[in-house]
Design goal:
Number of strands: 8
Distance between the termini: 78 Å
Strand order of the largest sheet: 1-2-3-4-5-6-7-8
Oligomer: single chain
Largest sheet: 8 strands, parallel, barrel
Structural class: alpha/beta
Number of helices: 21
Radius of gyration: 23 Å
Shape: globular
Strand content: 5-15%
Helix content: 40-55%
Order of helices and strands: EHHHEHHEHEHEHEHEHEHHHHHHHHHHH
């Protein structure tokens, strides 16, 4: 009998980004990460996800850190491991679509500061919103020999999302020039046997490596990974146990142990992983003690599977209802969410589409009349500013909310003129490095506040209390 062919499963570690974004609102400071990087670098990870997503905003806004500085320091710590980031297509890491010149410059600066793999997604899975970022990555790769464009498909359920849909998307992604595909299951909706079916079908349609990213929210994620690996998935995303499970990813050590002694054996050293877990555990305890880590997000929320609503969206909705003293309307809103989603062309529910659908559902219920009041984001979706949805939007809702308005059918970014020079001019007084213009582009107000804070640290002068007119500067 011939020996089994070894197919070690590759692992992307998320503790430095998605794990703490999901559990403690992205509040892990850079200085806490640095001492453990050397050990993490020895594990043999396929990649470490450490940047992008909400880390950029949280660094500037809450931690008073320069996100570019974080990236450079992490890069210094990882000599042998690829670094990975999450990138929201044409929205980059912000909340509006940017001109192509900003997208290209951001990609260029991310790779030159240390990112290897850029995972690019769009909340509607509109591939047109991903093309500029893929092209920019490939352009940099052709010039510098570095950079990997991974397109992530936001996984969701609904009539339109058939097996044919996913297979067709995989073929299109290969044609676009991406290097790999990720199935991004942000709400933990992909169940084990569906994963077998989906991975097998996609594997037969594309030569690109396929990575699976899910969250433990609904309780099935580890079993889903097991079936996906058996079906031939190439990489899975996991988190070190102190920041695993709940709304985060399955635990790294558990998945390593699961495949030990099989053809999928990672070969990782459990003693080394235990040392890394020991480092993070006291910080987790501290977060539990100070309330940053809410025990609620650590359990299983089966409502996710019943209503297909990601955890963050549910908590958002509950707080909106609380503010209006309308908590009794909770189940009415849950029923309204799928209806609004259908009206808007059945988009996946991921940032920002999840917030848009959720908020509109709350309005519809509280007003007692559907779409009596529509948010500006709902109007933008109906106009086509976010892109093309898989199913057509409700004509009745379009006529009620944006009567007579022209709708956009092209790629919305084609209507945005280049804006890098204009942004550069606006923030020139604060510029200390090329990357500052990008921080400003994404979060103008937050970045400006950070630049003032940075200057105060450097000069020991606090701009917020300085009396500029009389030249009095408290130090």
């Amino acid at each position: 009998m011939s020996e089994t062919v070894k197919k070690p499963i590759k692992i992307t570690e998320t503790i430095l980004r998605d794990a703490h974004q999901s559990l403690i609102a992205t509040r892990m400071p850079t200085d806490f990460m640095l001492p453990i990087l050397e050990k993490m670098d020895k594990v043999g990870y396929h990649s470490v996800e450490c940047w992008g997503g909400a880390t950029f905003d949280a660094s500037l806004r809450f931690l008073k850190e320069d996100p570019w500085d974080r990236l450079r320091k992490i890069r210094d710590g990882f000599k042998n491991t690829q670094l990975q980031m999450l990138f929201r297509g044409q929205n980059i890491l912000g909340y509006r679509p940017y001109a192509d010149d900003v997208v290209e410059y951001f990609v260029q600066k991310s790779i030159s500061n240390g990112i290897d793999i850029i995972r690019i997604f769009d909340c509607l899975n509109d591939l047109r919103n991903l093309q500029a970022a893929v092209d920019a990555t490939n352009k940099f790769k052709a010039q510098e020999g570095r950079g990997h464009a991974q397109i992530a498909l936001s996984y969701t359920l609904g009539d339109a999302y058939t097996l044919e849909y996913w297979v067709d998307m995989a073929k299109k992604i290969e044609e676009m020039g991406a290097d790999s595909i990720c199935i991004k299951d942000m709400a933990g909706l992909l169940v084990p046997y569906k994963a077998t079916e989906m991975i097998s079908a996609m594997k037969s349609a594309t030569k690109l490596p396929i990575q699976l990213h899910t969250h433990y929210t609904s309780g099935v994620a580890s079993m889903t990974y097991l079936k996906a690996v058996e079906a031939g998935v190439d990489v899975i995303d996991t988190a070190m146990s102190p920041f695993a499970l709940g709304t985060s990813q399955p635990a790294t050590e558990v998945m390593v142990e699961t495949f030990k002694g099989t053809e999928y054996d990672t070969g990782f050293d459990q003693n080394l992983l235990a040392e890394i877990a020991d480092y993070f555990r006291p910080y987790r305890d501290e977060c539990l003690a100070n309330g940053l880590l809410n025990p609620k997000v650590m359990g299983v929320d089966i409502k996710t599977l019943l209503y297909q609503v990601p955890g963050g969206m549910l908590s958002n909705m509950v707080s909106q209802l609380k503010e209006q003293n309308a908590e009794d309307k909770y189940y009415d809103v849950l029923k309204e969410i799928p209806a609004v989603r259908k009206d808007l062309g059945e988009p996946p529910l991921v940032t920002p589409s999840s917030q848009i659908v959720g908020t509109q559902a709350v309005f519809n219920v509280l007003m007692g009349e559907r779409y009596k009041m529509a948010t500006k984001e709902t109007k933008a979706v109906l106009r086509g500013e976010y892109g093309q949805t898989v199913k057509p939007m409700s004509q009745e809702v379009i006529d009620k909310v944006i009567p007579g308005e022209e709708r956009i059918t092209c790629r919305f970014a084609d209507t945005i003129p280049n804006e890098l020079d204009k942004l550069e001019a606006e923030m020139a007084e604060w510029k200390q490095q090329d990357e500052d213009v990008l921080s400003y582009a994404l979060f103008p107000q937050v970045a400006t506040d950070f630049f003032k804070y940075r200057q105060a640290q450097q000069t020991s002068v606090d701009q917020t209390v300085a009396d500029g007119k009389n030249g009095a500067y408290p130090v």
